[in-house]
Amino acid sequence: MTALPSWLSSRSSSPERPILRWALRPRARGLLLLTVIVSLAAMITGRSILYNLTYLLLALLILSFVWAWSAVRDLEIQRIPRSRRNAVGGFFEETLVLRNTGFFPKIWLEVRDGSTLPGHRASFVLDNLGRGGERLWTVRTRCRRRGLYRLGPLTLIGTDPFGLFEATLQLVETDEVLIYPPILPIRRLGLPAGFWRGTEAARQRTPEVTPNAGGVREYQPGDAFHRIHWPSTARRDRLMVKEFDQEPAADVWIVLDMMADVHIHQPDRDEEEWLAGRPRLLPLSTEEYAIALAASLAAYLLRRERMVGILAYGSRRLLLPPHRGEGQLERLLEGLALLRAHGEIPFHQVLQSHALRMARGSILILITPSGDPRWAMAARSLDSHGIRVAAMVLEAASFGGPEISPHVLPLLESAGIPVTVIRAGEPFASALERPGSA
To answer: What is the pLDDT of residues 329-367, one digit of tens each?
Structure first.
């Protein structure tokens, strides 16, 4: 809740103090000049009618000034966002409430919103807000681009009925909303069947049904009917149920190439397309495709109880060790929402300096639009160190960039590294279902 002070000359030096500004409209300047001329004529001629006209004009100016001043005081304004977290393609919704706590009604008041969220239009104009009156309005905005955006500041603009003075009060308090990258549907990954297995078998029993049967035991109350092993039951003449081992699972690292020089950005026609009713979740940018692909893969794997982490060098270093669960997905999405392709470290150096330190048996999913063969050679080195690698290459040519080097895919293919090539405009689901080979 932001309560506007009844007297703005507060001694507080807080940075949250509202900023009040005044402005004379053109007609006020004309009326002020007329008042000066009439008062000079009254003093020269001594005629009472001119004195009376001077008093009338002065009274009008003072009344208008006070009226404009009172239009932006004794107000309370509150903005209530439904959620401060959302995703591209979703809707951000907030309600703004304005109350008049003063004695005088507000004849005309404009509220301007300085939010940076694209397409968010919370500004409005109201009239005739009586004493104790309240107005509320709800704004619903489609989230277009990931990132951290500011809500506010709000600016209140009031004037008098004659339009002579304008009072502007800026409320410097702001809030923030974080927009996650989109999570696009993935049905399955076209990688070899043994690619996801861990290097060591887990001996712990699990109540879940997995592909790894660990043996049979006698039926106990509460066991699921579908776990009964009928051949053993017939042989031993009593109910026997199957036991399962936890499926071996390796840590999965998603490694993004966020070096600025390798990414391709097409001119953004986002505003035109959204206004034309053709919203596009992903612009023609390898950066946005890479971020959305990482988010979609992370969601797909975490929902299958995998341990997922992420590594990227962009506008800042993003390093999140592998974990499970919705909390990890939330952390990954927050990091990806703020990540920008402003990095200066080549992808092969990122792989050489960090990936080689990862545990043997880890799985690395590399996402890059780079045609530099050096990162493919670094991927081969990882594979020889017992770290399994899969590469997802964004075809830069389909985004308007250069053709990929003819040496990259053969280098990966000769080492048996699965490769998926993703083109601009192609759904992730169909691209990732293709068999993972170059």
So the answer is: 999 999 999 999 999 999 999 999 887 678 888 899 999
The dihedral built from the CA positions of residue 259, 262, 267 and 272, taken in this order, carries a sign that is negative
Would you say the C-alpha torsion 63, 64, 67, 73 has a positive or negative sign?
negative
Contact 260, 315 (CB under 8 A): no
Strand 165-171, strand 19-24: pairing:
antiparallel
How many other C-beta atoms are found inside a 10 Å radius of the C-beta of residue 95?
15
Q: Which fold would CATH assign to domain 15-180?
A: Immunoglobulin-like (2.60.40)
**Which one has a higher pLDDT value, 375 or 431?**
375
The total of other beta-carbon atoms located within 10 Å of residue 30's CB is 12
Over range 280-290, report the average pLDDT: 89
Buried b (16+ CB within 10 A) or exposed e, 181-219: bbbbebeebebeeeebbeeeeeeeeeeeeeeeebebeeb
Q: What is the pLDDT of residue 1?
A: 46
Distance CA 213, CA 329 (A): 30
d(CA 213, CA 242): 7
What dotted CATH number matches 252-433? 3.40.50.410
Domain definitions of the chain by residue range = 15-180, 205-245, 252-433
Contact 126, 171 (CB under 8 A): no
Neighbouring residues of 251: CB distance < 8 A, sequence distance ≥ 6: 307, 308, 309, 322, 358, 359, 361, 362, 363
Order of strands, sheet of 252-256, starting from the edge strand that comes earlier in the sequence = 317-323, 308-313, 252-256, 363-368, 388-394, 419-422
